[in-house]
Amino acid sequence: MSFLAPIWIPLLAAGIAVPSLLLFYFLRLRRQEVPISSTLLWRQAVQDLQVNSPFQRLRNNLLLWLQLAALLVAVFCLWRPVLQMVKTQEKTAILLIDQSASMATEEADDKTRLDIAKENAKTYIDNLDDRSKVMIINFHDRARVAAPFTTDKQALRRQIDDIEQTDCTSRLTEALALAEAHSTRQIVSSEGGDLTPESPTEPAEIVLFSDGRIEDADEVVLRRGGMRIALAGTATDNAGITGVGARRNYERPEELSVFVTVANFGDQPVKSDLTLKIDGRIKAVCPVTLGPATKEELPGTSTQPASLAPRPAAEQRANTAAVPFKLVYDGGGVLEVELIRSDALGADNRAWIVVQPPRHLRVLLVTSGNYFLKRILDCLPLREVRVLDPEAFEGDRKNLAPGGRLAYDVAIMDRFSPENLPVGNYLFFGAAPKVEGVKDTGVVENQFIYDWDDQHPVLRHVVLNYVWARKWRRIELPKRAERLVEGETTPVIATLSDGPSRHLIVAFDLHDSDWPLRVSFPVFTYNAIRYLSGSVTLAPSQSISPGAAAAIPVPAGADTLTVRRPDGESTELGSGELQAVYYRDTQRLGVYRVKPCVEGYEAFAVNLLSPAESNIRPNASFTIGTEQITATKSIRRENRPLWPWLMLGALVVLLLEWIIYNRRVYV
Amino acid sequence: MNRLEQLDIVSRKILAGKMKGERKSKRKGESVEFADYRNYVVGDDLRFLDWNIYARLDRLFLKLFLEEEDLNVWLLLDLSKSMDWGDPSKALYAKQVAAALAYIGLVNYDRVSVCAFNDRIVGDLSGVRGRRLMHQIVGFLTDQTPGGPSNMAAACRQFVIRHKPRGVLVVLSDFFDKGGFETGLRYLVRRDLDVYALQLLSPEEIDPKLTGDLRLVDLEDADVAEITVSRPLIHRYKANLQAYCESLKNFCTRRDVSYLFASTEVPFDRLVLSYLRRRGLLK
Predict the structure, then answer these.
(1) Of B83, B90, B216, the CB nearest to A39
(2) What is the pTM of this model?
């Protein structure tokens, strides 16, 4: 039961009415004068009963109690009590419950949005009739069926309670796919028995319990049925870390630069401190001041064709700031940056980076003669550059690759691709590694380089506009390869991981190109060596998103690896004869440690770094496919006022009081 | 009236009257009713010799006969203000009963006296004899109006001093005297006085139908009692009334006073013709 009026109204009314009623009973009553033959016996009776004492008058006065009861009911009605009833008519429903990082936002009453979403879901289930079939799917960036279709409300409530908070981002694609697949073929689970498929019926309606912060909302399409959304949460104040990176000065590797991007998504300005710790010890503190987030009109909204999905009229734009830290640190370890602030979502206030000690690289150049490569390698601050011709390489394999792993950080293969490459990092010019999935099928001539990925670390600051290559190898690559530079028909530069080995392939011979004469070539070489060795920057595999799989190289001779999570739980992974294992239990933020490990892979960090999740402002309206769907703050409820029933009850009480008075039934 | 003529007031105590009436007297006198024998002495009336005994015993005995005397019937009528209440009024009812009893006495050649009292004797009609003087009694009763407070003790004392009553005394009252009825009745208890206490109450006094918050005003002394009528109060009143009547009855019984209770709800003729006969006041 809820009340629409403030409580002071009925209290005030009761404070006036009840004492007034009691006062009437205490006041000198207007008595009817009756002559009587003698008061002799009446006085005796009165004295015996003492009925004229004030409280005796009240004690067993039925009429007073009835009048009080009617009065209190009327006063209670001033409070406007209502019964909030959930109105729903669905018989078959699929509940999607968002358990992403933004659902950890704390709302009122110390509840998180996930708690609110769970309560809403349970209330929704409670108000369905007993024949309704419901399925529960919990999702973040992946989805899972928590409960198949069932009419057992108790089981559904238990499954909802078991849904846990994660630090992952929220993506609806997989969840919707699951929901749509199940909605067309509804199978009801029966207690203790086999699942019984039923013939397809009407598609189930999908109900989403979320705060609306869905990354891929614009990308998903609702093919069948409809969708309802119950919005959970109202908090908007949040600032968090949305980006972090660390880099060593290439010439002075002991200098470590850490770049942190902080964003404020709330309506109030933020003043806080950003601390940098290394292995738990504070190394630097930087004050951060951020203005409030601003509203911006999305460009082109009014000119978009009607066939495209309409976008919200205005989107909140975070106020961001980049905070650099520069410190001298020649060791390795875990860097932690923390925004010292208590806000609704605390998960995005910390980020970690695993850094390795600076090391000078050892590079092996296998070539039958390449002036440009030798020249460039001599200019780079490398610990060692060894040049071998292909025959010498083949002859000294045992020393060059002890234990099957290359003894050098990077090997540059110029026009040379040996068989049975040892494990290592390779840069190929004019050749392709002989690994599974890669085929060198000939030569391509007189083609242009027309596209490249300038965001890739290898191609950062590399301008290929006027680079010309007379011819290059036609290389067929497996799907796992990443094409960095595209020619007209075939890739020109690509990167490929083969187990623990990493390959960067340049399809043309440097002698067939003018690239060595351009500024971009030494930049490319520098980037390539850094990328392949991962010695200076954070390697992508050492900081991953929550829920992503981490590729962990297996050290030689190790049969199992132990991965310890940030919460202290450890998992053993059997490696067998694999060169690398994939670890998928990365839902929690923090540093994961590996033992035993390959050098450089002692630990890896899982960071949120998601502006979509850090922007906790509930999204009341977004599109699913081409359909604009507006969220409701709660399951649709209707208020059923109770005062008519209560006043009816009061009327009955008054009628009873009248009857009693008139029939002279008195206590 | 015809039925009343057939009734007679009963005196449990056979008492001597001033005149010869139709009442047996313990005094031996001339009458037709044999009472006893005694030895003949010279000078006795020879007509009363019992010759049968002389024939058997050869001795002379004289028959003795009961003397027929008249009876004094006193009617003491409470006409205090409290009697002027009820529907029908207790005072009117008492007058009716008193008139009926007076008629019965007159018919039987009793000497009837009627006294009205409240806190004193307020009306007095003594020594009426003979049916033809019934109008005097009726006129007297009609002239008496109830009023004034009750003081039975003072009134009875005055009555006894003034009249030194003998015979039958019927007190018609509600006996609601705040000073108590005991003292007054004690004055009336005499060796040669047959007292009947007839308590008359109205139905409203027996079973009051009062409700609500009331201010009861005593008709006699304007005493006020404020009550809130409730079931326990009514029960308590009735219990008190019953106890009061019981105490009156017990007092009367201990002092050889006949106690009679009547409600004014009962028609007075039925009271006289049936109830009082059953209770022994009339025969």
Answers:
(1) B216
(2) 0.49
